[in-house]
Write a structure and sequence with these properties.
It is a single chain. By secondary structure, this protein is an alpha/beta fold. α1 runs parallel beside α2 (45-53) and α4 (105-132) runs parallel beside α5 (155-175). It has one domain (11-192, 221-245): 3-Layer(aba) Sandwich (Rossmann fold), CATH 3.40.50.720. It is built from 8 helices and 7 strands. It is 43% helix and 15% strand. The N and C termini lie far apart (40 Å). The protein is globular, with a radius of gyration of 17 Å. α2 (45-53) links the parallel β2 and β3 (58-62).
Length: 252
């Protein structure tokens, strides 16, 4: 009997696949057997190399997710390449830090457009294709522990991640009966470019580490296994789940 985590024969779309958590998710899905179409504005050559080493194939789809314009093309290119799209991982995101008294409308809109608006409309585009072939698809959104708490100096990011958690539950309610699983991962503090400022701040870094029961920052690879689980038939009865991967931070 095949492993319930085996993704052989499946095709996954992973947004924000050029680095960090998106890259790690793409490689983990590839190692589980999936073909991966990565979506990003910048080169994904390093991700392609790692996917190849994992024994799978990779398609680079260049797209700017700040507007919905490329969403149909992302599905068109993926399906032309692999003849199907079974898994969508909405990982792409940006973050802007500023005091709420000084936060600009542009920083608000830029984050909301990519971190929240794209999650809904790319899921909508993907789901229409999945339903046309009878369902049997998985959507995995990448939220954050800031879907549960407020954080500081990241108002639009916090709002977007609360929104991602809510959308995950709403879409699960809408599509569970139609054969589409919609779930989310909520990473804690992970070593990526987006958290570099916190890593470099000795006071904030020490304060964060003292709050994490695991005693360390997360690594992007720590999120990969959760993505494989939620993309696989092992999670067939998971709908609207927000899977926290945070080293115990929320339990602290």
């Amino acid at each position: 009997m095949a492993s319930p985590f085996d993704l052989t024969g499946k095709t996954a779309i992973v947004t924000g696949a050029s680095s960090g958590i998106g890259q790690a998710i793409a490689v983990a899905l590839a190692a589980a057997g999936a073909r991966v179409a990565g979506v990003a504005r910048s080169s994904m050559n390093e991700t392609a190399r790692q996917v190849d080493e994992a024994g799978s194939s990779f398609l680079q789809v260049r797209a700017d997710l700040s507007t919905i314009e490329p969403f149909e093309r992302i599905l068109d290119e993926t399906i032309a390449w692999a003849d199907r799209a079974d898994i969508l991982v909405n990982n792409a995101g940006i973050l802007r830090r500023a005091d709420p008294l000084d936060f600009s409308e542009k920083d608000w809109d830029d984050v909301i457009n990519i971190d929240l608006k794209s999650v809904f409309f790319l899921s909508q585009t993907f789901a229409k294709r999945a339903l046309a072939r009878g369902g049997g698809a998985k959507i995995v959104n990448v939220a954050s522990i800031l879907a549960f708490v407020g954080g500081i100096r990241v108002p639009s990011y916090t709002a977007s991640k609360h929104g991602v958690a809510g959308l995950t539950k709403l879409l699960a309610n809408e599509w569970a009966s139609k054969g589409i699983n919609v779930n989310a991962i909520a990473p804690g503090y992970v070593r990526t470019e987006a958290t570099q400022a916190l890593q470099d701040d000795p006071v904030r870094n020490e304060r964060l580490l003292s709050r994490i029961p695991a005693g360390r920052w997360g690594e992007p690879a720590d999120i990969g296994g959760a993505a494989v689980f939620l993309s696989s038939r092992a999670a067939d009865y998971c709908h609207g789940t927000i899977l926290v991967v945070d080293g115990g931070w929320l339990a602290g």
